[in-house]
Amino acid sequence: MSVNVSAPGLSASSLLLMALACGLCAGGNYFNQPLLHSIAAHFSVSESAAATSVTLAQVAYAAGLLLLAPLGDKLQRRGLAVSLMLLAALGQALCGLAGQFDLFLLGTLMAGLFSVAAQVLVPMAAALAQPGQSGRAVGWVMSGLLLGILLARSVAGMVSEAWGWQAVYQGAALVMAVVALWLWKALPASRNPSPVSYPQVLGSMWHLLRSQPGLRQRTLVSALAFASVSVLFSTMALQLSSGPLGLDDGQIGLIGLAGAAGALVATQAGRLVDKGLGRVSCAIGALALLLSWPLLWVGGAHLGWFVLGMVVIDLGLQCLNITNQATVAQLLPAARGRMNAVYMTGYFTGAAAGSALGTLAWRINGWQGACVLGLGLALALLACLGTFRMRKTHGLVARLA
Fold first, then answer.
1. Residue 44's CB: how many other CB atoms inside 10 A?
2. How far apart are CA 349 and CA 329, in angstroms?
3. Over 70: is that where the pLDDT of 96 sits?
4. Rounded distance, CA 129 to CA 340, Å?
5. How far is CA 160 from CA 22, 141, 252, 255, 351, in A?
6. How confident is the model at residue 129 (pLDDT cuts 50, 70, 90)?
7. Comparing C-alpha atoms, which of 364, 337, 397 is closest to residue 124?
8. How far apart are the first and last CA of the chain?
9. Which residue, 125, 123, 127, 117, is CA-closest to 148?
10. What is the DSSP letter of 73?
11. pTM, to two decimals
12. Where are the beta strands (DSSP E) in 76-219?
């Protein structure tokens, strides 16, 4: 499949490079998920303690989205993205070299905080795309990001089996540094034509959230979706490595390959938004998310059902996220960076909450507790979509009256 999205200052090869960079940045926050058992054994801590690194990575990413990603509306975007990516690589290196669990957590915090370079590149792609193709451009770059997230688990598991879990982080640090320097050479300079000060950037984000109902609605829906999926992310390694399946790191990592099918939906979802059919992809995503949890419940003891559940849940999440993010990018072009930062902060806040609640549900009632929680969050998402549609219909009737 060839990439046909281009614009002055943004070639197809540059777009693919941005997708690669986004995948590396975002994927780095997911290396720990199939490795929790090995990390716990290495540092002599409990698996529940090791699982806190999943939540920490997502909390750090949400903080970076709130405090750092909005700088894309103030600073030169290429320089900002490259600087953040190099700092994220430093965090990955610290994880790979840590001799104590506290240092590993510090590296996780750094990597998560600065990996928001990806969320500087996504609105940059939208800004440089040709008119009417911003959704498609976002879809291609987000495909790289999503593939990074999905493949990170598989790569981490296989590398861990071959060379140990620390080699995962050491190798990632090196590759990220190389790609960051490549970005500096390949990307054009890009800056908001109406830059604002940093206090204004932060202050305006709250104003955007209050004044843009579309932003609020899209953010809430995606936050609930990622919370539901993060329940799975924070507990799947614990279930698959124990109980009737008893898989090792490499086998757990291979399970993540099943979810890579979800990333294939990303460009199609972006195109649906460009055609005004965002509701269709949003509905598909919500239904897929809901249907995945019964499959995963059964999959706790039957690997085939678990793999199918992984495919369906990733399809659902990617449909919802790409649709909502591409829509948000079109709402207020002059504030793309801040709008995207608000949206993604909510998105990963939902992820962090889902991870924390998932770990708690696992402690209370194991895999069954996690599945009930994930299903409940998917039902809450469907209820929100129904409420938003009813409000829109009532508003239209009121205007016609």
1. 8
2. 19
3. yes
4. 16
5. 22, 28, 11, 15, 25
6. low
7. 337
8. 49
9. 117
10. G
11. 0.72
12. none
For residue 5, give both structure tokens. 């999205």
Instruction: Give pLDDT tens digits for 335-365.
Output: 777 787 788 888 888 988 998 899 899 989 9
Length of the chain: 401
Take residue 151 and report the two structure tokens written for it. Answer: 């493949």
CA distances from 186 to 13, 17, 18, 88, 380 (A): 9, 8, 10, 20, 43
Angle between helices 266-274 and 278-299 (to 10 degrees): 150
Structure tokens at 267: 């460009």
Radius of gyration of the chain (CA): 20
**In the 8-state DSSP scheme, what is residue 260?**
G
User: Is the pLDDT at 397 greater than 60, yes or no?
Assistant: no
Tokens of 251: 């086998």
Residue 172 tokens, joined: 């990632």
Amino acid at 168: V
Q: Tokens for 24?
A: 């590396």
Distance CA 272, CA 326 (A): 10
Helix (H/G/I), strand (E/B), else coil: 188? coil
Token digits for 240?
Answer: 């698959």
- Closest-CA residue to 339 (of 137, 123, 113): 123
**Are 330 and 65 contacting, i.e. CB atoms less than 8 angstroms apart?**
no
